[in-house]
Amino acid sequence: xxxxxxxxxxxxxxxxxxxxxEKIKLLDLDNNIETIECDISNDKKVEIVKLESxxxxxxxxFHGVTWISGKxxxxxxxxxxxxxxxxxxAKKYSFIVKADILKDELNDNxxxxxxxxxxxxxxxxxxxxxxESTHNILKDERSITKxxxxxxxxxxxxxxxxxxxxxxxxxxxxxxxxxxxxxxPDLEATTKIFIDMNKTKTGYDLLHRIAKLGPExxxx
Length: 220
Prior knowledge:
Number of helices: 9
Largest sheet: 5 strands, mixed
Number of domains: 2
Order of helices and strands: HEEEEEEHEHHHHHHH
Helix content: 40-55%
């Protein structure tokens, strides 16, 4: 019970909770929390807290990224602005960014950060750390999807050399990481095209030659 209560209100650092006359230390709920250190330029680091929320609170309103500076909540970033919040595995988690590094970059009413190059660079770096963490969360799910797609096209894959078989596996993995919101039917269709290209050396070489052509050479 104590952990569930603490998890629900963790994203509000100004909120104090007592359970049976004992103050709940929200950032000490070890079973629910993982701390991530995000490397920023000039040897500076930002601490990000990844919280697995209780099943009863798994709503889109609870999840996403909360940015705090000191003991004040600055803003929330919805999953849809970083990653597809409809992905079931990702919806289990919230991220709290301890953004003291941007304490001098708050706007006049302390509800957001200023719009400038420094803020943009730091925020983008932090978002990349969060996305990388979600990749780890979704690793098992991606592995299952990858196996399902490979199984559906096993006959075509068997026609490839061992090296090209490895290419197919690497291709699926790269697409999943670069496009985390891609739907399985789209990933399967893209993989099928890649397999067909590899079935004929001519088709694969042709793609490389086309990629090297300049705009004027592609004009008919």
